[in-house]
Specification:
The protein has about 70 residues and is mainly α. It has one domain. About 85% of the residues lie in helices and about 0% in strands.
């Protein structure tokens, strides 16, 4: 019985390895957190630039129209 439970435990561990998940300690390292933070900052900057660009596209014709009248 002990051998079968040991084999079953080993098989369960092999099934978990199929997922190819990184170890928890590696997942929580500061380097990976820094990369994630850099991605978030890049997304915020990109969204801000797109918003400013769209605002300029919409506002320039109105400013041009009212400035010439």
């Amino acid at each position: 019985m002990k051998e079968s439970s040991a084999k079953r435990y080993q098989n369960d561990r092999e099934v978990d390895d199929v997922l190819n998940l990184p170890p928890r300690s590696k997942k929580h390292q500061s380097r990976f957190r820094k990369e994630k933070n850099q991605l978030l900052i890049s997304q915020i900057i990109l969204k801000g630039l797109v918003t400013i660009f769209i605002f300029l596209i919409i506002s320039i014709p109105f400013i041009y129209y009212f400035w010439l009248q």
